[in-house]
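Hey, resending since the last one bounced:
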Amino acid sequence: MAARMAAKSGYTNVKVYHAGTPDWVKNGNVLLSNFDFVSKRLGYIVLIDTRGPQVAEKGHIQGAVAIPLMDVIKQKDQFPVDKKAYLVLYSDDTNLTGLSPVVKEIAGWGFERVYVLEGGYRGWISKKGLIQSGSVRTEIFYLPRPHPGEITGDEFVNVMRNLPEDKVILDVRTKAETSMGMIQGAKNIPVDDLQAKLDELPRDKEIIVHCRTGLRAEMGYTILRNAGFRARFLNDKVAIIEDQIFCCYKD
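The structure tokens again:
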């Protein structure tokens, strides 16, 4: 989908990395997170200021915990039990040289979403992001809860079972995937086709988006939100096994 959007924008030399994010990380590469992503999720993610408490007391991103870079790995026992938690590390600037080895080590513990903040603290300041000064936390505290736009697994299952009149379940998987089975009453529009088929969806109902893993569901949610729809997405797994629907399960 991203390649199609780039082509529509006029780019002519567009290539697709089909293996995606998991393979990128598996091969020892680091992911960057940007200002927009982090600023919308303050309070929902773990922010680690690797400059340390003394520097962070003069100013740090709101809600960050200050742990010197050389001590981050030593604090393994502090990290969330939830391996799907978003972890974002930052320094004065992007500092991939210093942060990459630490990020790779943390990913090796099984965390799926470990990032370096692009631009670091200076970049955050330049964009007028929320900051704090004075006392700073030095221990990680993480309370799992749905991020903006997400629907909890329990609520999704309730919607799936009861199909309320004010909601529509939108399956953004491919036709090949849905040929194996779908949630009863759901509507299927593959995420690649969604932008062109928005007129097929009601604007007086909330659209609940799902895919197989949550990645395409979030993409679909973003398209719907930008088009003015009321929408949420399931950031979890849905599978059809022997003609039965399983959702919100863990590996």
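The mean pLDDT is 88.

Sorry for the duplicate.
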